[in-house]
């Protein structure tokens, strides 16, 4: 029997959350069942969407950075470093074009994610779990039981570096492209961390030597068609818990960045990738680089797919302490954060959930 929301008279949020979770088919399962109203557990408090105006300055452009020939042309290289510094210190976001990953690989990755979610529900159920120690964790809302409202989104998550899973541990419909896409993004990540190191005035290898790019987690999101998109969110307002995120979107818009206290749509640029600073990069840069709040709107046009690659150190085996980089500090610029490990930060972030507050506040001195 299809899962249905309880009526107002006997509403029990905890039971409703469990009933939804127990279906093991996520939001996609609700839509497939023919649901026409958003269940109460997904209804977002209005204060989460108050800041819904775009900037009025028509000259304001979302940063797009062209990476072509940056290793061959010193003048272009310096220009790109300046652009990365400006975008990362203001928006906390930028798009990259001519990044070196073939368009065919991008399309195949998006297609693989869509195939995973659109395969037979019984096959998809086999992967559904809340055990974060599994090689692949597929569920709806990592913070389902702690967030103020559930998001209209399903996700499967996999740690792809430094210790990739064996092929048989990954879903057959997308395993090959998961390995190929990861290989390509790791290469791009090396270049991005060099640019960011130089943008901070450090040696090009500084962030790489700090092992910021040693680990990579792949988060594959599916935002189903929503019958009442004005009542819920694809992803609530949040910042990312990593050093850097590289995001692949399909051509369905919905991602918004909070900039100058107003929401701004991230434009759809064919073949581009969206890059954003994570909390831990803001922490080690002592606020020189900004981990911006962002969100995803639900829509009633069609489903949306995205793939987020989270760069971070090896969360399971590294006990590396990350605090503000010494070379960036001075008497006039003392450390603003205490040191933390990757594991401590991510565990705190996950336990807190997407509640509209920044996890960085917990680590401020």
UniProtKB/TrEMBL annotation:
One of its GO terms (biological process) is coumarin biosynthetic process. Residues 214-313 form the Fe2OG dioxygenase domain. It comes from the Eukaryota. Keywords: Iron, Metal-binding, Oxidoreductase, Vitamin C. The keyword Cytoplasm does not apply. The keyword Oxidoreductase applies. InterPro entries: DIOX_N, IPNS-like_FE2OG_OXY, IPNS-like_sf, Oxoglu/Fe-dep_dioxygenase_dom. Pfam families: 2OG-FeII_Oxy (PF03171), DIOX_N (PF14226). GO terms for molecular function: 2-oxoglutarate-dependent dioxygenase activity; L-ascorbic acid binding; metal ion binding. SUPFAM superfamilies: Clavaminate synthase-like (SSF51197). Belongs to the iron/ascorbate-dependent oxidoreductase family. This is 1-aminocyclopropane-1-carboxylate oxidase homolog 3.
